[in-house]
Amino acid sequence: MTVHTPTAAPYRFSDIIADPSIRDRWEKVRRYFFLRESTYDMTNRCNIRCEGCYYYAGDKQFAAEQKEEAAWRRLMEAEKERGITFVVLAGAEPSLVPELCRVCFEVIPLGAIATNGLKPIPSEIDYQIHISVWGNDTTSKAIRNATAMLERQIANYQGDPRAVFVYTFTPDNIDEADSVVARLVEHNCTATFNMFSAPVGYDGPLRHTPASLHKTRGMMQHLLAAYPKTVLFSPYSIVAHTSEQGLHDLFGCSYPRMNPSTAIGLGRSFRQYRTDLHWDRRAACCVPDTDCPDCRHYAAGSAVVTARMYRHATDPATFSAWLDYVDTYLAVWVRGYDKGENLCQSLIDPPPHHPSVSEES
Amino acid sequence: MSNQQTIKRITEIIINELKLEDVTPETFDVDLDLVDEIGIDSMDLATIALVLRDEYGIRIDEDDYPKLTTVRIIAAYIDDKRSQGE
Q1: Chain A closest CA to B83's CA: distance in Å?
Q2: Which of A1, A153, A219, A279 fits a disulfide with A117 by CB distance 3.0 to 4.6 angstroms?
């Protein structure tokens, strides 16, 4: 596999989508751009405590818990009213409050739940369920203090169409991804990849280095080639998430925390609610308290890369790579969306990004 | 092409790209806010920008998207770019 660096070819958009395979994929993904997301911390409790956890960095953990279902229902109805169509239920551990997750599902039926997978979420809550995997059982015991974690996660979710196992690469678990993903595939579990992105001030061993990024890229390529039907990823996803530059420097982050614009896109609609049902524009981000220059987080990429369609419409290969990324994002986040075969097998360089004055300041 | 012609052509493009039903260039209010009143999203805006790029041979900077609030304003923006030879 080689790196393809497109030149500034004079392609018209109409030329690019004249290719039947590109047009079909464009029409397929375009139908989903009605999605408007926000995220919600559900409880300040968790049944494990992981090294480098985002939730327990910063002060989110100190927000009071709103436990009243009626209050959550009012919030969801207000969110629906302002145009939110997709909810992400996260911190600290949503499976501990299934009654609140159920209320959210009843009002806004599209969404995803981020969970450690140790406590099953009732099947009637038909959101996509993202189960965090940080390595094999030995590694999980060491950094999450949880015994037989993968075994318990698989027991809870194997064959569950809602479940996506999210393997988070750290510098220390790259080699073991091979055996972990093989085990997931063996148990009919779908997988995707995440990159550990350090919280602000984090100085521990999980922060990536250029060498670990390079090594991760090789492992992702190997796993995508070995399990193309069960690993939800694309070559362009690999490029975007393992580059030495983080997502913000590569693409320009569109979440309110880094994006001052309130005119269109995420800066206009996205909110990140804490457990007391309040939010703060200055902190609103898919993973608050992440050190932005180190951000390669899969959730951030979903919005940041996806929003940059215009920039990728330069030539068929680059646009195909972007379509693969969007196709991957939808398959990972949206229930019932089936990922197609990747259109672009090359490792395409991201288009140049020239930060505006407001982004630099 | 005069500003009125530009306005008419942009209106046709937007109606076509957004698949607006029961709307014609004659009935489309070119002073409606595309985001607040028509309800288009950032992806729609990017698509329209690409089609306009094809149509007029100009590049619309992503940073300029928030300024392009109505058809009339987009037409003035395009005419300005074209007059500068971009």
Answers
A1: 21
A2: A153
Distance from CA of A110 to the nearest CA of B (A): 18
Number of cross-chain residue pairs from A and B with Cβ atoms under 8 Å apart: 39
The pLDDT tens digits for A38-67 are: 999 999 999 999 888 889 988 889 999 999
Q: Which of A265, A249, A195, A218 is nearest to A36 (CA)?
A: A265
The complex scores an ipTM of 0.86
**How does pLDDT run across B7-45, given as a tens digit for each residue?**
999 999 999 988 888 889 999 999 999 988 888 888 889
Other CB atoms within a 10 A radius of the CB of residue A228 amount to 13
Residues of A in CB contact (< 8 Å) with B are 12-14, 30, 33-34, 36, 261, 263-265, 268, 307, 309-311, 313, 356
Q: Which residue of A has its CA nearest to B44?
A: A33
Structure confidence by residue, pLDDT tens digits, A223-252: 999 999 999 999 999 999 999 999 999 999
Cβ <8 Å between B35 and A264: yes
Nearest neighbour of B66 by CB, restricted to A14, A261, A307: A261
**Model pTM?**
0.93
